[in-house]
Fold this sequence. Notes:
Layout: E1 2-8, E2 11-15, E3 18-23, E4 26-32, H1 39-51, E5 55-56, E6 62-64, H2 66-69, E7 72-77, H3 99-113, E8 119-121, E9 128-131, E10 134-143
Parallel strand pairs: 4-7, 7-8
Antiparallel strand pairs: 1-4, 1-10, 2-3, 2-9, 5-6
Helix pairs in contact: 1-3
Amino acid sequence: MRVVVQRSGASSVSVEGNITGSIEEGLVLLIGFTEKDTEDTLQWMAKKVANLRIFPDENGVMNKSILDKKGKILAISQFTLYADTTKGNRPSYMKALNNKEAELLYQKFCKELREYTEVETGVFGADMKVKIENIGPTTILLER
């Protein structure tokens, strides 16, 4: 499982011109799954995201989590996180989990995240337009 975590201001995702999820302050997660991911992986990753201290405290030090900030999460599925370009210029996605299984894990992962904070989402498998206001910029790659 790979998750790109971005500290975010106003961010949103839309499908066919309709906003399906938006946040004012929080985290944007771009999420990819592979065949070795399990429910334990989802639980570990949700806890890691919830406790990741990348928001500034009173002294400007990144020392607060999404829980401390009481912010929201915008969770977007993105199989392209498993792109492999080692054999040419056209990416291979062989390491990405198939749609049916990945969608199930995505739904379960969002449910795990909701144990910690409010979560907005995109639409799995849809052609989405994502607007991200990356604050900092702060971008962290988590993988398990």
